[in-house]
Design a protein that fits this description.
The protein has 212 residues and is an alpha/beta fold. It has a single domain, classed as Spore Coat Polysaccharide Biosynthesis Protein SpsA, Chain A, CATH 3.90.550.10. It has helices at 37-44, 77-88, 106-114, 142-151, 156-161, 184-201; strands at 10-14, 50-55, 67-70, 94-98, 121-126, 129-130, 134-137, 165-169.
Amino acid sequence: MANIIVPDAAVAVLTGGRSSRMGFPKAELKDSAGRRFFEALAEQLSFFPCRYLSMALDQHYEYPGFIPLRDEYPGTGPLGAILTALGHAEKDPLFVIACDMPAFTGEEAGRIFADYRGEDALIPAVNGRWQPLAALYSRRMIPVFRECLEKGDLRLRNAIMKSAYRLCEVPEEHRFNYLNLNTPEELQEYQVSLGHFRDNAGLPEEREKPAV
């Protein structure tokens, strides 16, 4: 596995929020081996020097080396969660990843960071489709997010468009990282396909931790 240049940045794994389509909190999503997705993501991203685990007020998750952060703007969705993390981050920028993206790797996070040029926000795009929950945000987004909250505009894309952002199109060979699961059917399909892949490739039950 290729080495990753350790970025001078922070990372926040977002576990908070309920999912009406999934029927239960996405933080409880697990792979076929019974491991929560957010735990696997945290392991993949543990090379960041400043690490946070973002959660709702009623959640009590933890992961070694990650500082727990409870949402300071409950009921405001990802925008409030990212704003909370930005307000606490000791490094700038902050890489944000949602817990429903089980295929995301540390290598992809490193690739995104290597493309960062000091924008307010660097947003990956897959075939033009924005991926704001696997993206880099500068502290300069704090007043932008606050203004949107004050106006009651919770759409993350609207906030991003008020900033000096840049989209970076994801190469085809990296697009698998951006799989996200929204329904029980999608979860079951993913678990079955992953188990089938492991059986045929002789892979271990857990992904290898990236070398740094």
